[in-house]
Amino acid sequence: MNRDLLETFPNPNPGRAYLIEHTAHEFTSLCPKTGQPDFATITLTYVPAEKCIELKSLKMYLQSFRNEGVFYEAAVNRILDDFVAVCEPAWARIEGKFGIRGGIGSVVTAEYESEESQP
Amino acid sequence: MNRDLLETFPNPNPGRAYLIEHTAHEFTSLCPKTGQPDFATITLTYVPAEKCIELKSLKMYLQSFRNEGVFYEAAVNRILDDFVAVCEPAWARIEGKFGIRGGIGSVVTAEYESEESQP
Amino acid sequence: MNRDLLETFPNPNPGRAYLIEHTAHEFTSLCPKTGQPDFATITLTYVPAEKCIELKSLKMYLQSFRNEGVFYEAAVNRILDDFVAVCEPAWARIEGKFGIRGGIGSVVTAEYESEESQP
Amino acid sequence: MNRDLLETFPNPNPGRAYLIEHTAHEFTSLCPKTGQPDFATITLTYVPAEKCIELKSLKMYLQSFRNEGVFYEAAVNRILDDFVAVCEPAWARIEGKFGIRGGIGSVVTAEYESEESQP
Amino acid sequence: MNRDLLETFPNPNPGRAYLIEHTAHEFTSLCPKTGQPDFATITLTYVPAEKCIELKSLKMYLQSFRNEGVFYEAAVNRILDDFVAVCEPAWARIEGKFGIRGGIGSVVTAEYESEESQP
Amino acid sequence: MNRDLLETFPNPNPGRAYLIEHTAHEFTSLCPKTGQPDFATITLTYVPAEKCIELKSLKMYLQSFRNEGVFYEAAVNRILDDFVAVCEPAWARIEGKFGIRGGIGSVVTAEYESEESQP
Amino acid sequence: MNRDLLETFPNPNPGRAYLIEHTAHEFTSLCPKTGQPDFATITLTYVPAEKCIELKSLKMYLQSFRNEGVFYEAAVNRILDDFVAVCEPAWARIEGKFGIRGGIGSVVTAEYESEESQP
Amino acid sequence: MNRDLLETFPNPNPGRAYLIEHTAHEFTSLCPKTGQPDFATITLTYVPAEKCIELKSLKMYLQSFRNEGVFYEAAVNRILDDFVAVCEPAWARIEGKFGIRGGIGSVVTAEYESEESQP
Amino acid sequence: MNRDLLETFPNPNPGRAYLIEHTAHEFTSLCPKTGQPDFATITLTYVPAEKCIELKSLKMYLQSFRNEGVFYEAAVNRILDDFVAVCEPAWARIEGKFGIRGGIGSVVTAEYESEESQP
Amino acid sequence: MNRDLLETFPNPNPGRAYLIEHTAHEFTSLCPKTGQPDFATITLTYVPAEKCIELKSLKMYLQSFRNEGVFYEAAVNRILDDFVAVCEPAWARIEGKFGIRGGIGSVVTAEYESEESQP
Asked: H6-43: per-residue pLDDT in tens?
């Protein structure tokens, strides 16, 4: 959970609003109550403004959750906050799809919209 | 069908409207007419306000239907009412997808929107 | 094609607009031109008003088409008319998905909205 | 259940042992106990000897079960017996895959091998 | 490509706007440049006005493309024009999904809306 | 777990060795350690000798596990023993496919062969 | 149905028995009784001896059935005979998977083994 | 990355706004940082104005990326710019779905709308 | 990688050879060369002798690989060795299905057969 | 097509015959006749003797086909020969699954067995 791992590069087409989606199938963290590992697929979707996220740095950032205890809801919101702080997108969404626990699967989804891009 | 089993924890991001979905694949109750078991997948989707539902308590609550007689339509509305009373979400939906009976499968879906979140 | 087979029970939550969907995988009737059997999956989706359809009576009603000659388009509209007459829903839709004939599969879909529920 | 409906044509390659499979997705009969309709997919697989089954006659033969009461096990064995009597294949198998009843799906499979083709 | 093959019958429910969809999996024509065969799945979706398309005539009409040279874009627009001219629907859409050529699959979709049904 | 619920009927084709498979998607029992419900799909496959299992009695028998505590391995072996004792098949197999617990799904499979049918 | 269209090239590894499979999704011919088009997926699998089939010539050969009337069983055996005559493989199999007619799909499969490669 | 490879032909139905979609499953380029090959499925969707894209020229154009170094985001925007410059459509969209790298799959989507077609 | 975490319980049916399969979807370890995380689905299949593996202890054992560096081939063989040492089965197999790296997915499978159970 | 790119490491369990499978989804080469790119999924399955193939070197080796002209049959046999020469396995198989050309998809499979491991 180390925001400093995220790196960006200049958006090659800042004049056009377009969509980028990265789906990380291998996210894992720990349950803060039981210490048991949790597993999820994290999908980051965003409309870049001036910066794009560098793919390898995104991988390293997501790996930094590996041995941290964090609830589903907090993990998704934290990733969104970190991404928005570093990449300053026009719009962004994080979806976390967590593995089955006690016969129940869970999906948490949070969105961000910059003030400039709101109507 | 014991509402008191549901427990909540404080929403870690109350300032952001975001979506949580829990899908319970192992719901079972009894048919009130024949006493025969019914099976369903129950999907709870909601936008939290001040509280989030605790996942293990949701499992225990859904298990409390195991030996109760209840019609499809009543079960879905009852789960929605109990969830809304305890968790007080901004918005919520319950979908129950019931197994095939006499060659017919059934889905019942009910929604709730809090007065504050209505336009 | 006997409307009298349809039975209803009082909607347990008449104060909430919610959705019920029954999918019958085993519908069969006869082609009125050739006498050959037709097969379809019939999906009934509706928002109940005062009454809900009783599931077993729906099965018996759909079985009453077994040895009747009826075109696809007429079958779907007839089921919708019969259902609306007996169950008086706020809204209803019938979808009939018919098997492949001459390399062509067919789907017919008809909707009904009660005058009260129209804006 | 009328064996006389089955027609054959001469095998165009009687000198070569090869495999023919016909899968009928639209088989229906009645339950002899309850009178309720049953639905199945019937797969006929065979190695022809002197005769091949004519496809349209197979369809008509299978349709002759439509309003007959017959158990799953009896239906599959009956189809095999009728087919063997009329088509006299080197080898044949009938698989009947029946729809879900009381949460249980059923498959019945029976084989025939001619005395000449046994080692 | 013979419009005269299309036949219609009177819409059994002209008072209700409803949807009919026919999906033909076995469409084939020729490439006008190379003479090589093309293969497609053609889906016709429409809201009937006074007339419905007769299913067997639709099959015969689509077969009339078998040995004609026609580009993807022209085929879909031609089928739409012919269907509209004969069946005079309130609304119609033709989708043609063509097989892979040079590693590229293609879909062409065209719609028609009658002047009366436009708002 | 009441063997007496199983009923049989005479095999309509005792002279032919053929295969019957019943797949029950809605099996549930309790974990003997935690009291938590377990869910499984149970598949019974057998070659009948003199008797066939009656389908509705199989459903009632499987339902008798609903509130009993039993381990996966014991449940599958118990069902096989009860089935063999009542139905006396030439050959039988029980497969139990249990739901995901702690990220792990389980399948237990046991077979029986009568002494006469062994080579 | 013109065997002369098939061309071969020398097997680059005649010293090793290996398997080649070509699956043609776009085969069409005519029904010799009704003149109606038939559609199939043809799979050719073989172990080459001295020669391999040239892929484009296989396409042209299969296209030569387009306007010929031929039964399913005859088509598959004919393709096998032509392929064996031209390519002289150690072993070969043709599978033809034909589209649904009257609710029935069909698969015909024929094999060839050269005398040298038989044990 | 050679725009001159793209060729067009006159839109056969310039009076009707309709949709054309080409999906190229076999796109490959190089990573400009590591020189390693990237693989993607590129989907071009557009509403033609006066011109349609010639399918073979699209294939040749996409092949011209094979040994060029280009980032995901730049590739998708470049393809859109080249297509718009040559084909001058009313509307167009490019979606690039890139293979998994470090456990992460990526999709980049960019759209274009001509000034005339904007409301 | 701590064998002592594995616990067993007495096989409830030691007189019958039957099959148990546990599939763990959430296995993760580290690459010993790069320190990067690896992810796999591990399937343990075995025929018990005197002992069965306790499911929760299997989960804890597999979790003990989380922060250990181990190659694919070594991980699968190590799990098999540990399982055989503790559970002493008649037969066992471990399959590890590892995530895509550099566009390549990997599966490693190893088996064990006790001396008594070999023919 | 550079065998020297393949590297090995010592088999960690040379005393046990076990199976390793690597599936490369991103293989591309050129058609030697037309110069057009071909695409395939290459699956390498083997039983190691003293050496295992190093995964990254396998990736680099397969990439060396990128701009080489080679027929399907020759590519698969060449990969098998190179792998056997460098890794000296007990048994090995290469399967190449090539993309659709002219409506036809192709699979080529070749196996190797060392003299010691043959019975």
From this structure: 999 999 999 999 999 999 999 999 999 999 999 999 99
pLDDT value at position E2? 86
Supply the pLDDT for residue B115: 81
Chains F, A in contact: 3+ Cβ pairs under 8 A?
A: yes
Smallest CA–CA separation between C56 and chain D, in Å? 12
Considering only CB atoms, which chain F residues are within 8 Å of I48?
73
> Token match 């892929």: residue?
G55
Q: Do D67 and C63 touch (CB under 8 A)?
A: no
Q: Is E31 a catalytic residue?
A: yes
Q: Which residues contact B18 (CB under 8 A, 6 or more apart)?
A: A73, A76, A77, A108, A109, A110, A111, B47, B48
Q: How confident is the model at residue I116 (pLDDT cuts 50, 70, 90)?
A: confident
Active site residue D38: yes
What is the rounded average pLDDT of the residues G57-77?
96
Nearest residue of chain E to residue G56 (CA atoms): E36
CA angle A82, A88, A91 (to 5 degrees): 95
Question: G36 contacts in E (CB within 8 Å)?
Answer: 63
Compute the distance between CA of residue F79 and CA of residue F95 in angstroms, rounded to an integer: 10
Q: Is pLDDT at H1 greater than 80 in this prediction? A: no
Q: Do B103 and D99 touch (CB under 8 A)?
A: yes
Please, what is the average pLDDT of chain I? 95
Write out pLDDT tens, residues B32-73. Answer: 999 999 999 999 999 999 999 999 999 999 999 999 999 999
Partner-chain contact D26 C63, CB within 8 Å: no
Q: Cα separation of I16 and E63, whole Å?
A: 61
What is the CATH T-level fold of the domain A3-113, as seen in this structure? GTP Cyclohydrolase I, domain 2 (3.30.1130)
Q: CA Rg, chain H, in Å?
A: 15
Distance in Å, alpha carbon of B39 to nearest chain F alpha carbon:
7
Subunits next to B (3 or more Cβ pairs <8 Å) are A, C, D, F
Question: Which among A36, A63, A99 has the least Cβ separation from residue I37?
Answer: A63
E-G contacts (CB, under 8 Å): 24
Q: What's the CA gap between E44 and E83, in Å, rounded?
A: 9
**pLDDT of F58:** 97
Q: Which two tokens stand for residue H119?
A: 């409301």
> Which letter does DSSP use for residue E116 in this model?
T
Output DSSP code: residue G83: H
Residue B16 distance to chain F (closest CA, Å): 31
Specify which residues E29 forms β-bridges with: E38
Annotated catalytic residue within H4, H31, H52, H82:
H31
Decide if A14 contacts A77 (C-beta within 8 A). Answer: no
Per-residue three-class SS string for chain B: CCHHHCCEEECCCCCCCCEEEEEEEEEEEECCCCCCEEEEEEEEEEECCCEEECHHHHHHHHHCCCCCECCHHHHHHHHHHHHHHHHCCCEEEEEEEEEEECCEEEEEEEEEECCCCCC
pTM > 0.90: yes or no: yes
For residues A33 and E35, give the distance between their C-alpha atoms in angstroms, rounded to a whole number.
68
Q: Which residue of J has its CA nearest to E99?
A: J103
Q: What pLDDT sits at residue C117?
A: 73
Q: Chain C interface residues facing chain E, Cβ-Cβ under 8 Å?
A: 71-74, 76-77, 100-111
**Residue G119 pLDDT > 80:** no
Residue-wise pLDDT tens digits, H46-100: 999 999 999 999 999 999 999 999 999 999 999 999 999 999 999 999 999 999 9
So what's the pLDDT on residue B13?
94
Which tens digits make up the pLDDT trace of C47-70? 999 999 999 999 999 999 999 999
Report the residue from D25, D37, D99 with minimal CB separation from C66.
D37
Instruction: Delimit the domains of chain I by residue range.
Output: 3-113
Which one of G94, G104, G112 makes the best mutation probe of the D interface by having the most chain D beta carbons within 10 Å?
G104
